[in-house]
Design a protein that fits this description.
CATH architecture of the largest domain: Alpha-Beta Barrel
Radius of gyration: 22 Å
Shape: globular
Number of strands: 17
Structural class: alpha/beta
Largest sheet: 9 strands, mixed
Number of helices: 10
CATH superfamily of the largest domain: Alanine racemase
Number of domains: 2
Helix content: 25-40%
């Protein structure tokens, strides 16, 4: 892997229109190796999330490394994983409405893949029972350990689990427990928060003894890998970003994508306007953290709109219109979804090859 401080720079930037998302396969492969290292090579404990990259080529790199189980947030992501040869795919997004039928169609289309879904409510359990009674669907009870986004409270999860065990249309496979609220920068604080959040989960596991528990996300990946026996489902670890990189350098992952942008206007002294608007980098969180510029350490974003990002940076008078700049996304997952394709970079050059971001679409075929 290129460890140079300027690993992101292209020898041939003139060959790439901007804005563009560059991907560095050697760095993706290194991140996959780091994931395997964290679980001590026990590949069966890995269930990476597809949501971060949404690309078949990244799936193939993981499958070549022996990773065969995946987590997906959309039917399209689940289809991508199955089409690439995944043996086991969890739809980690409770299926409701027409998505129940789409999930059934997915199973019919890819019989070689075992599919599962998360649930946190009785009405969904009954709906799945009606649809899958002839060929039961594997389900995981989605447990809320403190994020309060989805999931059933820990104290109520056993009841839903036992209901699932006696429902003919499903197979109660286990628990899904996502701790997305935990992202402390200090590893000790992160571990304390994780232990506190999962203390009642351990009691639940001891009570129901599920076959499988899927726990944690990227910030707590190493903690779960070291302290638990269940499956880990990091996602951002594959590509990494400035947000997690700044808060969690202890995890040992490196950015594997970078944005190529250009100066399109210089409206006033010390101000640069780039072609890196909302439609090229995720407009999430505070403006200062949406992108970082390794070649402009003192740059301060001051305005962000659909097609423009305005920076104020001292000493930029000599930067000419059309100059190529590089930016690390603050949050890579929604940034990737803004791009139809990524531009492949090998040995410092854009090769002319592109990797389609296929599962950014809400529908592929199913």
């Amino acid at each position: 892997m290129n460890q140079s401080p300027s690993w992101y720079r292209l020898d041939n930037p003139g060959s790439v229109p901007s804005p563009a998302l560059l991907i560095y396969p050697d760095r993706v492969a290194a991140n996959i190796r780091r994931m395997l290292q964290i679980v001590d090579g026990r590949v069966e404990r890995l269930r990476p999330h597809v949501k971060t990259h949404k690309m078949a080529e990244v799936m193939h790199l993981q499958i070549e490394a022996g990773i065969t189980k995946y987590k997906a947030a959309t039917i399209a992501e689940a289809e991508l994983a199955a089409a690439c040869g995944a043996s086991d795919v969890l739809l980690a997004y409770q299926p409701v409405g027409p998505n129940i039928e789409r999930l059934a169609k997915l199973r019919e289309t890819f019989p070689q893949t075992s599919f599962a879904a998360i649930i946190d409510a009785e009405p969904v359990l009954w709906a799945l029972d009606r649809r899958f009674r002839d060929a039961p669907l594997r389900v995981f009870i989605d447990v809320d350990c403190g994020m309060h986004r989805t999931g059933i409270p820990v104290g109520e999860a056993a009841g839903l689990y036992w209901q699932a065990t006696s429902t003919p249309g499903v197979i109660a496979e286990g628990l899904h427990v996502y701790d997305g609220q935990i992202h402390d920068a200090d590893p000790a604080d992160r571990e304390r928060a994780m232990r506190q959040a999962f203390e009642p989960v351990h009691d639940l596991v001891a009570e129901i003894r599920p076959k499988t528990v899927i726990g944690g996300g990227s910030p707590t990946f190493a903690l779960h890998a070291n302290l638990e026996t269940w499956e880990c489902s990091p996602g951002t670890t594959l590509l990494w970003d400035a947000g997690y990189g700044g808060r969690h350098p202890d995890l040992g992952f490196e950015p594997a994508v970078c944005l190529l942008t250009r100066v399109i206007s210089k409206p006033t002294v010390g101000r640069l306007c780039l072609d890196l608007g909302h439609k090229a980098v995720a407009a999430e969180g505070i403006l200062a953290r949406r992108a970082s510029f390794p070649d402009l350490k003192d740059a301060e974003p001051v305005m962000h709109s659909e097609e423009h990002l305005v920076l104020e940076a001292p000493g930029t008078e000599s930067i000419e219109l059309g100059t190529a700049l590089y930016a690390l996304p603050g949050h890579v997952c929604p940034t990737v979804a803004l791009h139809m394709e990524t531009v492949v970079v090998r040995d410092g050059k854009a090769t002319g090859e592109t990797w389609p971001v296929l599962a950014r679409n809400r529908r592929i075929t199913v």
